[in-house]
Structures are given as structure tokens and as C-alpha cells.
Write a structure and sequence with these properties.
This protein is an alpha/beta fold. Helix content is 38%, strand content 23%. The chain starts with a helix and ends with a helix. It is globular.
Length: 232
């Protein structure tokens, strides 16, 4: 049963990503490296030119460490958990270097920064988290930040998936302000407290706020967020 669920989740994630390119960035190099001639940069080089003055541009994978922070408190059961797992799979399939922290009353590190976990195993770990406890968003953020601090990559990002309604723990907006960058996906029905909290966390984390009005919308919202945030 679990294996069939994992198969279905990965198939759904791959369908959503079938036309998506992995995030890349442009890098300027000199001849004889591979790449497309950058005529403008070449013409800016002082003359007389030598072969090494030929400037080229090539696309290389964008190196970024992402921590997905998943709200897995008591209300997260059945289909909701499966859709959160689809969202996590989309992040892993497209960004490669993805750590995962789930939280309820307490945070749970499912995948550590630098740990090489296949998409299938990542989904398995997400599905293995029991939906229980209260909603300690600040605890999840603090644990995720500890993971990001282990990273040596220049770009380090948190992506929080939550309804924003914390009922235990410290102020999550204060915790969000410590991130290099934190983007927030506000999940579920509109709730004034949750809306204010999600907006405040995104602003404090110098990130963007996305809205998934239903859990069924979540995978597509995360796919769009990846495209917009990491286009290179």
C-alpha cells in the first residue's frame, strides 16, 4: 500500500514537471571553454586581443540549498499529507539539494542539509510522519535555520508550507527574520490570524508569499514558485 502511494505521488510530481527545466545560471568563461560567444563582453576587452580574451557564456546548474518546512500537525491527515508529499517531491526533483523539516508540537528533521536522499526515500519519510500534536511554526523555523547554517553554499533558502495558525511556541515572525531568505506558501482556507502570520513571515524573511487556497492547489503553486524563484 505504501509503495503504491509513493509511486502515485512521484508520478503526479513528474507530470507537473514534464516541461520544466532544472534551474540554471549563466556563467561567463574564457576560450577555450565550452559556451556561446558573448560578443559584447568580448568587445569590451582591451586590444590587441589574445585568444583568451574571447568571452563565452555557458549555463551551469544553480547551486542552492533549500530547506522545505512542512506543517504536519494534527489536522494533516489522509489526502492533505499526500499533497504535501507531492510538493516536497517537486522541490527535490527540480532543485536537488533539498532538506526537509516537518513540525507539529516539535520539529522533526526528515532530511538533513547535505544528505543525499533519493526522491522516493524523501517521499517515504514525509509519509511516515504521524499527523499529531499542535502547530509550533517557530519550532519548525528554528530547526530549519539550524540546518541552513550547516550549508556552505552561497544561496540558502527556506520554503515554509503552513496555514500560519500557530497555537504553541514563540512568535514565528521573529524566527523568520533570521533566515537569509524565507518564502511562505499560505495553505488552506483564509483565516485572519494565519493570513497575517504568513504575510509577516514572508516580509521578515525577505521572501515571497504564495497562496494555495486548497490543498489540491498546493503542488501547482509550489511548481510555479520554483519556476519564479529559481529561474536563474
Amino acid at each position: 500500500m505504501l509503495e503504491r502511494a509513493i509511486d502515485a505521488i512521484l508520478a503526479h510530481a513528474r507530470r507537473l514537471l514534464r516541461h520544466a527545466a532544472r534551474p540554471q545560471r549563466a556563467e561567463e568563461v574564457g576560450w577555450p571553454e565550452d559556451g556561446e560567444l558573448d560578443l559584447e563582453s568580448t568587445l569590451e576587452r582591451p586590444r590587441p586581443w589574445a585568444p583568451i580574451d574571447l568571452r563565452l557564456t555557458r549555463l551551469v546548474p544553480r547551486e542552492v540549498d533549500v530547506v522545505a518546512i512542512l506543517d504536519m500537525s494534527l489536522s494533516m491527515t489522509g489526502e492533505k499529507v499526500a499533497l504535501v508529499a507531492v510538493a516536497a517531491a517537486i522541490l527535490r526533483l527540480r532543485l536537488v539539494h533539498v532538506a526537509v523539516v516537518a513540525f507539529d508540537t516539535h520539529p522533526h528533521v526528515l532530511v538533513r542539509v547535505g544528505e543525499d536522499v533519493a526522491p522516493r526515500e524523501l517521499v517515504r519519510r514525509v509519509l511516515s510522519v504521524p499527523a499529531q500534536g499542535y502547530t509550533n511554526i517557530a519550532g519548525g523555523l528554528t530547526s530549519a535555520l539550524e540546518q541552513l547554517r550547516r550549508s556552505s553554499r552561497r544561496e540558502r533558502v527556506g520554503i515554509l508550507l503552513t496555514d500560519g495558525v500557530a497555537n504553541v511556541g514563540h512568535d514565528p515572525i521573529g524566527a523568520a527574520g533570521h533566515f537569509p531568505r524565507l518564502h511562505v506558501v499560505h495553505l488552506g482556507d483564509h483565516h485572519p490570524q494565519g493570513a497575517r502570520s504568513c504575510r509577516g513571515m514572508a516580509q521578515a524573511g525577505r521572501g515571497r508569499l504564495y497562496r494555495a487556497r486548497t490543498y489540491a492547489d498546493l503542488p501547482d503553486v509550489v511548481r510555479r514558485a520554483v519556476r519564479e524563484l529559481f529561474r536563474g
